[in-house]
Design a protein that fits this description.
The complex is a heterodimer of chains A (86) and B (618). Chain A has helices spanning 29-37, 72-75, and strands spanning 17-22, 45-51, 59-63, 66-70, 78-82. Chain A has 86 residues and is of the alpha+beta class. Chain A has one domain (17-82): Roll (SH3 type barrels). Chain A has a five-stranded antiparallel beta sheet with strand order 4-3-2-1-5. Chain B has helices at 17-25, 70-79, 101-112, 125-130, 137-144, 159-169, 188-202, 211-220, 225-266, 271-288, 291-307, 309-322, 331-336, 341-346, 354-363, 373-383, 395-420, 442-476, 488-491, 493-505, 512-518, 527-535, 545-555, 558-570, 575-585, 589-615; strands at residues 6-11, 29-33, 40-47, 53-58, 91-97, 118-123, 133-135, 148-150, 203-206, 388-390, 393-394, 431-433. The radius of gyration of chain B is 28 Å and the shape is elongated. Classes of the chains: A alpha+beta (86), B alpha/beta (618).
Chain lengths: 86, 618
């Protein structure tokens, strides 16, 4: 699990995955707390639904049964493991 | 007599809490403010099935009891009994989104752990079923150890059952459930896991779809079509505010003019008559005139919020707003400010982060509001030659566009500077739940509009009416002696002030007449046109715009006219904006800062414009 090279930012759109770990040290305290409050946690199913315009806009992802928008920098701190390849 | 029991509605954002509050209380609600913070206090009354009255409190939505905004702090302080001026609630209704149990149950567990009697409203039950989710409310009640009532607040379903459950709780002498399960007091991650287990136990079956929302999002968030759709929405909104709002606003202004005319016929000419017509009636009229545009603007904002589209618009615009240190949430308030900064500033409440919100409020006046249009039209029409610089592109229109662009560019630069200085701090970024799309209910819209109108009329209105009367006094006193050659305007306090401060404005090309016109323009920008008319002894109430234009051409140089326009782009000239800023920031510090920086900016920009124009030989 720790060897997964993929972050949420790199996860292909519509590819189902699971949160493998979150690099809390790369997030500010309020960011980390808000992430936890929105249900980001190891083992939760996740999927990228939309990416805003080219140029580093935010991404929208499904986490549990919720859709959450977050900026790429935060998405980069969330490690994911894809459910199955292909 | 004992006060009625207090019941607090608590829940995550997007749980449909306010809709439930509206369904429970109807129109019997009061919007106030918690002392010392800009957090609205929504309270209402309802009757239990046995007739007992209950006071209901709608607390700001929050994800947990660890606050990250003033709103969330109020929620925590009220349910823990720490909020000044609020008693500890006798019971809590936890509003939970039925299709989002995993997440919302964690907060429910935290609330149960407080030890107050709790009822869970399993809200938006219909949407959960629509999404292919089958729940077992009885199982949920067993797992949580508190009553659970399925509700559909927007359709008023489950409301009676909820009241019955509350009646059982609110019986005097009923002992609070005091769950001592240590898991309730564990850290957030443990609670979250427990919440997921409970959600699983209460779910009979689920198909993981949000078909409608997914389909709509594939258009609304599309890099091309989504942006196009946003522009269509904005276009419709602006057309409505400018055109549908203009006629009622004119009618209201006309009505107040008529009223003033009637008073003038009945009363003999005296200072009292002048106070009533030019002071009180004009002052109250100046406030109510804004109401149609404010209501239309808020109608759109409420529909966009309630339908779930607002977050999508913020999502699309976040990248651009992030470039100047703001979040996507600032987009709609800033856009609203093109119609009028007053509703724009009022709508910044949707911005969670205090510093983001403050920055947005501070730059909102730089968006060219509709009140500046009459001034721009008059001065451009009078001073800028009506020639075409390109086929279909007139110079006058180009100057007008330039003024709008100046405002936006200025606002962005100011935001950049503010975010690095006075409103410095880690931006909370942009991290938000995107709620399901929903058809807004007419009742919720009506209640929302009514409370906005009430706030505007009561809070901003009193300040605006008061200052308008003060300005009237400045223009009316001291009274000019009879058969004096000096006009009343020149003789008045305002005239004398203009004489005194005129030298300060000479370097930027302003003559005394302009300085004098700027003083009444403090009440409302468009008044400066009428004020110039008074100064030049032209009756501007009729169709004397051409006469006015001729006068301007003989008295002003082109350089002065351009400097005057530039002044209007930046200067803080409307008392309403200052009043509403004071109200929204809870004090005079930020409105004072806003006025200061805008004056400085206006002075510098008008000066630069004037001297560049003079150097260019204009």
């Amino acid at each position: 699990m720790a060897t997964t090279p993929l972050s949420l930012e790199q996860l292909p759109q519509r590819q189902r995955a699971t949160v493998a770990g979150i690099a809390w040290d790369r997030l500010t305290a309020p960011e980390g707390r808000r992430l936890r409050e929105l249900g980001f946690d190891e083992g939760v199913g996740i999927e990228v639904l939309h990416r805003a315009r080219i140029g580093g806009g935010p991404i929208a992802c499904r986490i549990g049964r919720m859709t959450v928008a977050l900026r790429r920098r935060v998405a980069g701190a969330i490690h994911v493991a894809t459910d199955q390849l292909g | 007599m004992n006060p009625a029991p207090l019941v607090a509605l608590v829940g995550n954002p997007n749980a449909g809490k306010s809709a439930l509050f509206n369904a429970l209380t109807g129109a019997r609600q009061k919007v106030g403010n918690y002392p010392g913070v800009t957090v609205e206090r929504h309270a209402g009354r309802m009757a239990l099935p046995d007739g007992r009255p209950v006071e209901l409190l709608d607390l700001p939505g929050t994800y947990s009891l660890e606050p990250s905004s003033p709103d969330e702090r109020v929620t925590r302080d009220v349910v823990t009994g720490a909020q000044a001026g609020e008693r500890l609630p006798d019971a809590i209704v936890v509003v939970v989104d039925a299709s989002n149990l995993d997440n919302h149950l964690r907060f429910t567990l935290q609330l149960i752990a407080l030890g107050l009697p709790v009822v869970v409203a399993l809200n938006m039950y219909d949407l959960a079923e629509r999404d292919g989710l089958k729940l077992d409310p009885a199982a949920l009640a067993r797992e949580l150890g508190v009553p659970v009532v399925p509700t559909v607040a927007v359709r008023k379903r489950g409301i009676d059952e909820l009241k019955e459950a509350l009646a059982d709780l609110a019986t005097p002498g009923a002992t609070a459930l005091r769950p001592s399960d240590p898991v309730l007091h564990a850290d957030i991650a443990t609670l979250q896991r427990r919440a997921r287990q409970i959600a699983m136990a209460a779910t009979i079956s689920e198909t993981p779809v949000r078909r409608w929302t997914h389909m709509l999002d594939s258009v609304a968030l599309h890099p091309v079509f989504g942006v196009l759709l946003l522009f269509v929405v904005l276009f419709v909104m602006f057309q409505a505010v400018f055109f549908a709002g203009a006629a009622p606003a004119d009618a209201i202004a006309g009505g107040f003019d008529w009223l003033a005319g009637q008073v003038k016929q009945v009363m003999p000419d005296s200072i009292l008559r002048s106070l009533i017509t030019d002071g009180v009636i004009a002052g109250v009229g100046a406030v109510i005139k804004f109401l149609p545009q404010i209501l239309i603007m808020f109608f759109f904002i409420l529909v966009l919020e309630a339908s779930g589209y607002m977050v999508r618009a913020a999502f699309l615009m976040d990248r651009i707003m992030a470039a100047v240190g703001l979040s996507g949430r600032a987009f709609i308030p800033l856009l609203s400010s093109f119609a009028c900064a007053v509703p724009g500033i009022m709508s910044t409440r949707t911005i969670e982060d205090e510093k983001d919100r403050l920055t947005t409020i501070l730059i909102a006046p730089l968006m060219t509001c509709s009140a500046r249009l009459p001034v721009y039209t008059l001065v451009i029409g009078a001073m800028i030659p009506n020639v075409r610089v390109l086929p279909f592109v007139g110079l006058q229109g180009l100057v007008m566009l330039g003024l709008y662009v100046m405002g936006v560019v200025g606002a962005f630069i100011v935001a950049l500077v503010l975010r690095r200085t006075v409103t410095k701090g880690a931006s909370s970024g942009f991290m938000m739940e995107m709620p399901k799309y929903q058809l807004p209910s007419v009742r919720d819209l009506a209640i929302g509009l009514w409370s906005r109108a009430e706030i505007f009329l009561k809070r901003a209105g009193t300040t605006i009416a008061f200052t308008t009367i003060v300005l009237w006094a400045m223009l009316s006193f001291p009274q000019v002696p009879k058969d004096s050659a000096v006009s009343q305007v020149n003789y008045s306090v305002a005239g004398r002030i203009a004489n005194t401060i005129e030298p300060a404005f000479r370097p930027i090309g302003f003559n005394r007449d302009i300085v004098l016109a700027l003083i009444p323009a403090m009440a409302a920008r468009e008044v400066s046109v009428a004020a110039l008319g008074t100064v030049y002894a032209i009756d501007s109430s009729g169709d004397d715009d051409t006469k006015m234009a001729q006068t301007l051409r003989t008295r002003w140089s082109l350089a002065t006219a351009l400097a005057f326009l530039m002044w209007f782009v930046f200067a803080p000239q409307c008392i309403s904006t200052i009043a509403v800023t004071r109200r929204e920031t809870n004090g005079w510090k930020w409105p004072a800062f806003m006025v200061g920086y805008l004056f400085l900016l206006a002075y510098i920009m008008a000066g630069i414009t004037y001297w560049l124009a003079v150097l260019a030989g204009l």
